[in-house]
Amino acid sequence: MxxxxxxxxxxxxxxxxxxxDESLPAVAPAPIEPGVNxxxxxxxxxxxxxxxxxxxxxxxxxxxxTVGSRYGLGVSQLVDAAQWVLVAEAxxxxxxxxxxxxxxxxxxxxYSVELNWEFAADAVGEALKFLPEGAEDVPEAGVWSDLGTxxxxxxxxxxxxxxLVDDLQYYRxxxxxxxxxxxxx
Length: 185
Fold this sequence. Notes:
Layout: E1 2-3, H1 7-16, E2 38-40, E3 44-49, E4 52-57, H2 58-67, H3 81-101, H4 110-128, H5 146-154, H6 161-182
Parallel strand pairs: 1-4
Antiparallel strand pairs: 2-3, 3-4
Helix pairs in contact: 3-4, 3-5, 4-6
């Protein structure tokens, strides 16, 4: 049985499991519904998904929430570094599209702009966790999925420290610029 650090990480994994071609979007996973596709156990949720059963320990979810880590503490054992970069890129594309369409009108949804930039930054932050101190590139062991391996082969620079840090700064900076332009929510 698979184990995720948080419910959010489990949802990312399920979505990634539907990707057959990295140029195509993943299918959104079914929402978590208690009693339908999730069961509360003594010390964890068990999610029944298209990717199989995934256990999410209450303690790891709570620890992540306490420190504000959307996807969990430590390095993921479920989603590899290249997959995290793909997730970040998908959220960044959504954020940019929403950002460009946003004009500050009262009937527009600024939350989707902000949330997608936050998710993009958090996902690239997850990829950065795979970099050992002083390393300039994510080691081979940090990419184990077929999707991640294919993606890395097509773009070997995607998992360098420089690229990941640049992406993180861009996502956070663009979010800061958006908030500076449109004021507090």
